[in-house]
Amino acid sequence: MQKARPFAEFNEWLNSSLVTLGDHAKELQSIRTSVYWVVKLSTTPEEMVQAQFQQQRLKELDLKYRKLAFIIVRVATRLFIQALSSSLRRESVIRKGPGTRWLAFVEFFYSPKTVELTFKPLIAEWQHEIFEALKEGRTRKVYWISMRHRWYFLKAMGLSELLEAIEKVVGLVKKG
Amino acid sequence: MFDLPSLSKKEQLILGLLLGDGVRERFGLEMVEASGGKLKRGTIYVTLQRMEEKGFIESRQEERTAPEIGIPRRLYKATGHGQRVFNAYQLASQAMAANFAG
Fold first, then answer.
1. Given an 8 Å threshold on Cβ–Cβ distance, is A125 in contact with B42?
2. How far apart are CA B33 and CA B39, in angstroms?
3. A114 contact B CB<8A
């Protein structure tokens, strides 16, 4: 099975954002240098007004740059958490098949024949339905299927137990 | 005296589904869907196990061509004995219906 790479998208996005941020930083630095010289070299009142205007613009650009950096950090954090939870979720699906614990439970209490003929086919259908839903990308349906099949499993457990008890009683009545 | 094999209504329904359109194999879930709500998912495998023990049906695990994960599903088909018992019950019920109607 091909392993999913939930971090690939996040890495790609982060790299492009950092490049954009770097470009903005360079631009800001060049503007800062030019404004410094405009302020330093201004002599006439008109030039001084112009310098003040450019200083104000520099402040605005600086604020925009900080805002952009803040947004990038926030989005990066959110994407990182999403990628992390998605990777954990995928691993848990691969690690254990649905109904595995239930099977282990009934293997302990029931005869191998009953497990083979009653419980294994039930779990096989359970897994088949879940894999079909996963193929279609319907993750919400998976929860419903699991809940439904747990109920069927409980019903099968109760009924087969009842049947075994009836058989035992019938056998005892026949014997004596 | 000849000991007549017992066949419950659910067992008759399952045999009817397995023998309905020619002799063929079916999955448990397929039979539940085809029964129109008469068979339940939680109880069908208990019934199928009992029928297999009585010799009415036989089962095998599905063959897989592509590498798949999970437990393979089980396919069921009626045996010759199951078919004979089913036919006998059909004839008996028809005869009884004719008797009661007359």
1. no
2. 8
3. yes
DSSP class of B8: -
Q: Is the ipTM of this complex over 0.85?
A: no
The number of beta carbons lying within 10 Å of the beta carbon of residue B26 is 19
In contact, A28 and A65? CB cutoff 8 Å: yes
Question: B37-94: per-residue pLDDT in tens?
Answer: 888 888 889 899 999 999 999 999 888 776 667 888 999 999 999 999 999 998 988 8
Q: How far apart are the first and last CA of chain A?
A: 59
**DSSP string of A62-83, one letter each residue:** HHHHHHHHHHHHHHHHHHHHHH
Q: What are the chain A neighbours of B68 within 8 Å (beta carbons)? A: 131
Closest to B73 (Cβ–Cβ): which among A97, A118, A124? A124
DSSP A115: I
Read off φ and ψ for residue B26, nearest 5 degrees.
-140, 150
**Per-position pLDDT tens, chain A of length 176:** 444 565 677 777 777 878 888 887 888 888 888 888 888 887 888 888 888 888 888 888 888 888 888 888 888 888 778 777 776 665 545 456 788 888 888 888 888 888 889 889 989 988 888 888 888 888 788 888 888 888 888 888 875 566 667 777 888 887 76
The DSSP code sequence of A41-53 is H--SHHHHHHHHH
CB contact B8 to A (< 8 Å): no
CB contact under 8 A, B29 and A127: no
The verdict on A18 touching B (C-beta cutoff 8 Å) is: no
How far apart CA A128 and CA A149 sit, in angstroms, is: 11
Residue B70 burial class via C-beta count within 10 angstroms: exposed 0-12, middle 13-18, buried 19 and up: middle
